[in-house]
Amino acid sequence: MNNPDQTPLHWQFIDNALVRVFIFPDFVECVRFITDITPLAEELQHHPDISIFGYNHVKITLITHDAGKIVTQKDILLAEMMNDLFDKYK
């Protein structure tokens, strides 16, 4: 994806990657979210970079390494799946 205008809702196009920070009420919910996105990543065989910071923030970075470290449709699809999953936490 060379067009940041195609970035899924709430995601940012930063350094040739899709990035989003999800905010939760507590650490336990952060870990639960990561556990819940695991099957999505496995289904697509596409694994995000994940970090927890500030006890209640999960930062996800999506980029397709085997396509030359660019954002591809796999990244967009996984981002949209994560958005849908996060909506269930509200």
**Architecture per CATH nomenclature, i.e. the level-2 architecture:** 2-Layer Sandwich
According to CATH, what is the topology?
Gyrase A, domain 2
Which class in CATH terms? Alpha Beta
Mean pLDDT equals 91
Q: Work out the number of β strands.
A: 4
User: What is the helix fraction of residues, given as a range?
Assistant: 25-40%
- Overall geometry: globular
What sequence of helices (H) and strands (E) makes up the elements?
Answer: EEHEEH
- Enumerate how many helices there are, as a single number: 2
State the separation between the terminal residues, measured CA to CA.
Answer: 29 Å
How would you describe the overall organization of this protein?
This protein is α+β, with helices and mostly antiparallel strands. It has a single domain, classed as 2-Layer Sandwich (Gyrase A, domain 2), CATH 3.30.1360.20. The chain has two helices and four strands. It has helices spanning 27-44, 73-87, and strands at 12-14, 17-23, 49-53, 57-62. Strands 1-2-4-3 form a four-stranded antiparallel beta sheet, covered by helices on one side. A hairpin with a 2-residue loop joins β1 and β2. α1 packs antiparallel against α2 (73-87). It is globular, with a radius of gyration of 13 Å. The mean pLDDT is 91.
